[in-house]
Structure formats: structure tokens, C-alpha cells
Specification:
The strands form two sheets. A six-stranded mixed β-sheet has the order 1-2-3-8-5-6. Strands 4-7 form a two-stranded antiparallel ribbon. By secondary structure, it is α+β, with helices and mostly antiparallel strands. It is built from five helices and eight strands. The longest helix has 16 residues.
């Protein structure tokens, strides 16, 4: 009986314990306290550095613009008409001829030893053969600085001045001058002609073909072999 009473009491107590909670909570688990939210630091999104692309300007090399070569027009020098043979000009003829050695070469020289023959000289000659020439011999009274010109001369020539013993004092290349112009004064024309000076006093001069002095290598101080003593005795 006692056991039965005890069991009944126990069962009653257990039934009461089972009814002290609302019906809705039976079989439900008490929810866990809500976790404190962890503060979330926003991720720093650093914008990507966008370095502007270096746009190097294209090198524009200037085109080589070479200036066009302008060749100056060739100006033809004005032709100067050489003098023509004048039938009124006297020409030396039948002059004495002597042998001479100039630059080691043999020459035949016509002798102009009078005033008239010296004045005419090589005037009016239209040619001048190689190894020929004319020697001008002045009398003692006319010894001094001599000056030759090319009046009425039609061919170029070389002029060689000598001292009393035949040494070369001065050498000139004489050129044919231009002809006198129509209407030009004869006096003014002759005054315009070049004079070729001996520079030093002398009494002998020789005219030889053009270019001969250079060809033979003549120079001042060279000796010309000719009978100057005999020629001076004939000078007038």
C-alpha cells in the first residue's frame, strides 16, 4: 500500500512538473543568445592607378630639301677683234741677220740697228716662225730705260731685255692689243696701249716667238750668246 501510495504521489508530482511551461515551449530549445555582430571594416578598394600611356610624339624628320643648284649662266666674254694688217704700215725687210744662242737653242735674229728699223720693229708681220727673232741695238746716246709697245703688231711675242754683256734683265709676254674702234682717236688709242719696260737701263732688246721664254725656262740673269760688241758698233 505504502509503495502504491508513494508511486501515486510520485506520478502526481511528475505530472505537475510537466505542466509548468506553456505548451508552445514544449520540445523547443531555448534560442542561443544572439552573437554580437563583428564589426566589418569595409575593404578599402584603392582605385588602380591608371598611369596615362606616354604618347611620345612621332619624330617628324624634316625632309632634306636641298636647294636646287642654280648654275650661273656662262657669260661669253665679248670678243675683241684683233687689229688687221694695214697696207699703209711699213714692214721691215732685208735686214741683216745674225746668229745667237738663247736658252741653249740656236736663233736667227734680224738686226734693227737704225732709228727707222727700231721704230718699225715687228709691225705688220702676220707670222713668227720658231727660232727666229729681232734684236734691237741702241746707240750709246739712247742707252737707258727702254719701253716697247705693240702698236700695229699682229702676233704675240716675248720680249727679252739684255744688259751690256748679254745677261737677261727683264722678260715680258706681249699680247696683240684690240683693234682701234671706229671713230676712236688714234692718239687716245695709242696712249691706251701697254708699255713693257726694261726697268733697268739697257741698250739691247730681243723679240722672239710667243711662249719661247717659258718653254726654254729663261729667267733673269741668264746669258744670251750674241756678238753684242760688233752690233753696238753698227747702231745709229
Amino acid at each position: 500500500m505504502v509503495r502504491g501510495a508513494v508511486a501515486a504521489v510520485t506520478a502526481l508530482l511528475l505530472g505537475l512538473g510537466a505542466c509548468d511551461k506553456p505548451a508552445g515551449e514544449q520540445g523547443t530549445k531555448e534560442p542561443a543568445p544572439s552573437a554580437t555582430p563583428v564589426p566589418t571594416k569595409p575593404i578599402e578598394t584603392k582605385p588602380a592607378e591608371t598611369k596615362p600611356a606616354e604618347t611620345k610624339p612621332a619624330e617628324t624628320k624634316p625632309a632634306d630639301t636641298k636647294p636646287a643648284e642654280t648654275k650661273p649662266a656662262e657669260s661669253t666674254p665679248a670678243q675683241t677683234e684683233p687689229p688687221k694688217a694695214d697696207p699703209n704700215v711699213k714692214v721691215n725687210k732685208d735686214l741683216q741677220v745674225v746668229d745667237a744662242k738663247i736658252g741653249g737653242q740656236a736663233f736667227k735674229l734680224e738686226v734693227a740697228n737704225t732709228f727707222e728699223s727700231r721704230e718699225v720693229g715687228m709691225m705688220g708681220r702676220t707670222s713668227f716662225p720658231d727660232n727666229t727673232g729681232m734684236i734691237f741695238v741702241f746707240p750709246p746716246a739712247q742707252f737707258g730705260i727702254q719701253r716697247f709697245w705693240m702698236n700695229n703688231c699682229l702676233v704675240d711675242m716675248d720680249l727679252v731685255y739684255l744688259d751690256n754683256v748679254g745677261r737677261i734683265l727683264k722678260i715680258h709676254e706681249m699680247k696683240v692689243p684690240p683693234a682701234i674702234k671706229p671713230g676712236q682717236s688714234r692718239v687716245l688709242y695709242e696712249e691706251s696701249l701697254p708699255r713693257y719696260s726694261s726697268v733697268f737701263p739697257c741698250g739691247v732688246a730681243i723679240e722672239i716667238p710667243p711662249g719661247s721664254a717659258k718653254k726654254m725656262g729663261l729667267k733673269e740673269g741668264d746669258k744670251v750668246e750674241v756678238d753684242l760688241a760688233g752690233l753696238k758698233k753698227t747702231a745709229k
